[in-house]
Amino acid sequence: MYEELTERILNCAYKVHSKLGAGMLESVYQRCLSYELTKNGIKNETEKAIPLKYGDLYVDNAFKIDILVEDIVILELKSVEKFCELHQAQILSI
């Protein structure tokens, strides 16, 4: 169902990675990927705040999505040497 969109996102990500290579800050990759997505006609929002409701408590900015694409795909960017359990927890909690 989302194969075409996923392919377009990946193409943009590959382009950014090919041009920048490894070792940049996550914020640099985020801005460049958002630029590529926009340039390719793909709607995206960076640093999208996601609320959390816990009983009567409402937390406006409980989570921040690195990039939300077309209101359906969440991109969580990582600029690390090795993916660890903490990164996995971040992805699963969104």
User: Which H/E pattern describes the elements?
Assistant: HHEEEH
The total beta strand count reads 3
Mean pLDDT: 88
% residues in beta strands? 25-35%
Q: Which bin fits the share of residues in helices?
A: 40-55%
Q: What sort of overall outline do the alpha carbons produce when their principal axes are compared?
A: globular
**How would a textbook summarize the main sheet?**
3 strands, antiparallel
Word description of this protein:
This protein is of the alpha+beta class and 94 residues long. 44% of the residues lie in helices and 29% in strands. The protein has a three-stranded antiparallel β-sheet. Helix 1 packs across helix 2. The radius of gyration is 14 Å and the shape is globular.
